[in-house]
Amino acid sequence: MLVSGLSAAFGALALPIAAAKSLWSDSPGNYSSIITTAFPLGNGRLGAMPIGSYDKEIVNLNVDSLWRGGPFESPTYSGGNPNISKAGALPGIREWIFQNGTGNVSALLGEFPYYGSYQVLANLTIDMGGLSNVNGYRRNLDLESAVYSDHFSTGDNYIEREAFCSYPDNVCVYRLGSNFSLPAITFGLENQLTSPTPNVSCHGNSISLCGQTYPSIGMIYNARVTVVVPGAQNPSDLCSSSTVKIPEGEKEVFLVFAAETNYDASNGNTEASFSFKGENPYMSVLKTATDAAKKSYSALKSSHVKDFKEVFGKFTLTLPDPNGSADQPTTELLSSYTQPGDPYVENLLLDFGRYLFISSSRPGSLPPNLQGLWTESYSPAWSGDYHANINLQMNHWAVDQTGLGDLTEPLWTYMAETWMPRGAETAELLYGTSEGWVTHDEMNTFGHTAMKNVAQWADYPATNAWMSHHVWDHYDYSQDVSWYRQTGYPILKGAAQFWLSQLVQDEYFKDGTLVVNPCNSPEHGPTTFGCTHYQQLIWEVFDHVLRGWEASGDDDTSFKDAISAKFSTLDPGIHIGWWGQIQEWKLDIDVKNDTHRHLSNLYGWYPGYAISSVHGFNKTITDAVETTLYSRGTGVEDSNTGWGKVWRSACWGLLNNTDEAYSELSLAIQNNFADNGLDMYGGTPPFQIDANFGLVGAMISMLVRDLDRASADAGKVQSVLLGPAIPAAWGGGSVEGLRLRGGGVVSFHWDDDGVVDSCRVDTSERGSGSQLEFFVSGGKAIDCS
Ligand code: FUC
């Protein structure tokens, strides 16, 4: 392997290297706080959280499409869109704002009835009666294979349990084994939170839970557990009072769990009257469970492990373990983690972030929502929806760079099927354009694309532009032209068309530039014009249209000409204000030392590139970015969010400021990450998965600076900085399989001071044809060929 080769070249490493690849604990989780203590499993669509109780085990179950609301609550549901156009109000709104500097969009606000919510599916209960003399308990989640296990002894009896959620077989599997004899076991399915209560019944060796979120019209969901006693002549009827009972004396029992709903996003369009409805899932669930239950446990497990390992193994970070943390339960490491940090834990959380993405985003699933797909609640915070003024974006930050780009299909399908059809209506009804599509920050699974009737956080229309950045990134890293043509470009083009129709001459400064009016910076400040964040985003969208023109296969040259024309007079949203900051608005009204959690004016620094591209990576710019970051605070920001800190960390990383990057990263872990490794919004529940994924992005930005570049630079040599901000605490580590823009893959090792000392690049998949040059921190060139 390359990295061992690299390590060998540098002799014995000073510190023990311990790959951090398991979450584990010597005690069970706690049912009253599942979300902070259980280890999550998932196959993209299904989620399972075993709590680990010795004798009365509970496994919290989820299926990603189970939502209340939308057309499953009311036939009049319209995605929030009004029934008559409100676009006539726009000229007046614009005029007011250009005269006064600020204004409001109250004339465009909508209703949002039937928005709905994601919700828990069920609990699987596994009751072994009362066990006494329990000893030697341990539970473990192996992140490389996605197999959970626990074991303990009761007297002479040694009991081990294993669980995983298999993508190839579309089921979760749970096995109990004993060296001697298992006690009598009662399996059940329940959901006591949902109203109306689902119906639970059993047939033979299966339990079936059937529910509907509202009487007659609601979403239909079905879950099935089929219990298998290997080798035994399965008695035809193990049912008793809706449970399956296995008598004492077996050595091995396993079950498969399958679930589906009748949600079908491909029916989220005009032709299907936005019904989002598909088939009753009962027969399909029955088939999935029956097919899986015919297989042996080892066959189910080996295909799952092979599948998961292949994806997980595409990227490896190896940090040192200076404190011998590998010997301590990770639940204890996480609960006692403090600054300045522990490389073992940071490595673990990067692995866990990738693990969570693989477990919540697989072709055919929905993309990860605010909680991935794991909730124990009937009404999770923010409906467990798709916020897209940072959160959904952060969920996808480092996916392509860490080899998981093939798992992004759910995101594109979700946008194409639920946002674009309703969003085209919203563009027409609120903005008066028949070109393109738009949506506003908070989305459910039923195409809620209009504004809400509440404050401005839900009324942010730049989601289409920001998500187009992800479209471009996926193309840039994968170099998959046919994907770009068929899937990516239509999303990007629709966003570009929308913004082409909305740009107006700046009538306030009268500086000849094109600006957005009205706009608001995410969750911060007034409704105004020329908001930095929008201008940077639109600049990047237009830049990507032009750069990818050949690849797009588009022959609509009038569209291209319109983009080129407006691109040249577009205000790119980079103004340095009176105290040296990157302004958040075109009006220089930023308040110093405002520790607001969103870094919207630094979008074009990270994760975007407008700031570094328009003016180059020069000192004026880096000073302004630094001033802005310091002003936003180096400690706890306004809501103590995990995502706020990892965003700051990523920005500092690109700025070569190792101390601040590491400090924000470690502060996030200290304040926001629970004992099971999941991120808690302000330090305590609710769980919010964005920082789990954002932490991966922040760590990658400390390892590499491989910036996107303006179309004007296409074809020029691409400079990649290896190790812009590697802390000395990570000294002697290495990375393998880091994806580069243009399709390259790089692996490298760094010395005890965090300076890269060895690298190899594989450019065999490189499609852009441009040359690469590599540098290390301090500016020295390094040969990676
Ligand atoms: C964004 C943030 C909030 C929260 C919410 C789910 O809008 O500003 O802090 O994370 O998403």
TrEMBL record:
Residues 23-265 form the Glycosyl hydrolase family 95 N-terminal domain. One of its GO terms (molecular function) is alpha-L-fucosidase activity. Residues 1-20 form the signal peptide. Residues 296-703 form the Glycosyl hydrolase family 95 catalytic domain. Residues 721-763 form the Alpha fucosidase A-like C-terminal domain. One of its GO terms (biological process) is carbohydrate metabolic process. The keyword Cytoplasm does not apply. InterPro entries: 6-hairpin_glycosidase_sf (IPR008928), 6hp_glycosidase-like_sf (IPR012341), AFCA-like_C (IPR049053), Alpha-L-fucosidase (IPR016518), GH95_cat (IPR054363), GH95_N_dom (IPR027414). This is Uncharacterized protein. It comes from Aspergillus sclerotiicarbonarius (strain CBS 121057 / IBT 28362).
